[in-house]
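> forwarded from #structure-qc
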């Protein structure tokens, strides 16, 4: 049995230790295993760790539960990505509260070059269905991965449309991977797992309670480059996801509707208060994101260009070569430069005509390089 995974799962089950505090413990101690080996007086010196949490690390039941989870994973073909793993979604690494562990059923690439979340009302109208299907259809030339939450209405519509058009899709669940909610989407979930992926940061036994879904929504928001709200009332999960996406510096889009339609009021409000771009067609998203149809990978950079760059500029340009359209947070994480240094290098590369800034604090190598 993978001992480090055992400690990682056990850490997520300690009462009072969420993703942010767990990462802090690991930074101070070095690994999840070492967190459990550390003496209480040492743990007490770590900011945000009290005696209650420190003593909670001693429970044998934590490891019994973790062992059971690993057996379930092995039996059902589920893998877990740790936030420091190479294959862990790079976009989620930018989010301070990103999951410590992400459980995955499926084999799709969660570092796909372009990822679009589509969310909206559970009580989707005919207008909402038409818009959702059109949006996914128009995203085909851009080969975007579609992210949503498997709920009734817009979520399920976006997943089905992605599958119909052979686009990769991933569903983020608000419960463990031992169940499907809503149950009527069991067949859809099975198809998504076969052709895309089911994701969750909950271990088995966690039921789909209302308190789980805002936590689930942060993963949807964190995974994407852009999020589209198709239909939404003035309150609800879609607006929560859009607001989280704004805090993550993701580009938010909303489909407008009649001012008298209940499930257009949320979208119209997002646009009115400048928390979302108006989206009539995917051309609006293409303009804001500066996406071009077809191959999303940049052409190889000419060797002669590198001659005129400093070593630090080469390092950052090389990162952008393999991470197209990266945000400033992702650049800082991926290159090891601090924010001030990365910003200075980006400015220099922009003056040299190597990098272009995009809306939403995104940067990319120029296509003709």
């Amino acid at each position: 049995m993978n001992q480090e995974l055992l400690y990682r799962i056990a850490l997520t089950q300690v009462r009072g230790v969420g993703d942010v505090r767990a990462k802090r413990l690991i930074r101070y101690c070095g690994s999840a295993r070492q967190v459990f080996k550390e003496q209480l007086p040492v743990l007490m010196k770590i900011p945000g760790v009290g005696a209650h949490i420190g003593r909670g690390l001693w429970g044998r039941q934590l490891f019994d539960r973790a062992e059971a989870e690993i057996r379930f994973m092995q039996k059902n073909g589920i893998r877990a990505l740790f936030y420091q793993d190479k294959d862990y979604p790079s976009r989620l690494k930018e989010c301070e509260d990103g999951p410590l562990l992400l459980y995955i059923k499926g084999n799709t690439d969660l570092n796909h070059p372009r990822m679009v979340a589509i969310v909206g009302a559970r009580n989707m109208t005919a207008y909402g269905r038409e818009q959702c299907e059109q949006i996914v259809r128009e995203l085909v030339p851009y080969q975007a991965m579609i992210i949503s939450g498997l709920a009734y209405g817009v979520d399920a519509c976006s997943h089905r449309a992605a599958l119909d058009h052979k686009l990769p899709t991933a569903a983020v669940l608000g419960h463990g991977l031992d169940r499907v909610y809503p149950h009527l989407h069991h067949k859809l979930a099975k198809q998504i797992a076969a052709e895309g992926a089911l994701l969750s940061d909950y271990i088995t036994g966690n039921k789909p309670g209302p308190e789980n879904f805002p936590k689930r929504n942060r993963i949807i928001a964190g995974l994407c480059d852009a999020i589209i709200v198709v239909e939404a009332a003035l309150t609800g999960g879609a607006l929560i996801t859009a607001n989280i996406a704004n805090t993550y510096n993701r580009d938010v889009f909303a489909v407008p509707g009649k001012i008298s339609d209940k499930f257009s009021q949320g979208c119209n409000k997002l646009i009115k208060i400048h928390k979302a771009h108006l989206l009539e067609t995917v051309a609006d998203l293409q303009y804001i994101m500066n996406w071009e149809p077809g191959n999303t990978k940049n052409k190889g950079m000419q060797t002669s260009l590198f001659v005129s760059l400093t070593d630090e500029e080469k390092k950052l340009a090389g990162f952008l070569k393999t991470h197209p359209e990266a945000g400033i947070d992702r650049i800082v994480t991926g290159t090891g430069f601090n924010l001030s240094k990365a910003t200075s290098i980006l400015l220099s590369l922009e003056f040299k005509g190597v990098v272009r800034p995009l809306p939403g604090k995104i940067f990319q190598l120029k296509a003709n390089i």
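QC bot note: The CA atoms of residues 246 and 252 lie 7 Å apart. Confidence is low (pLDDT under 50) at residues 298-307.
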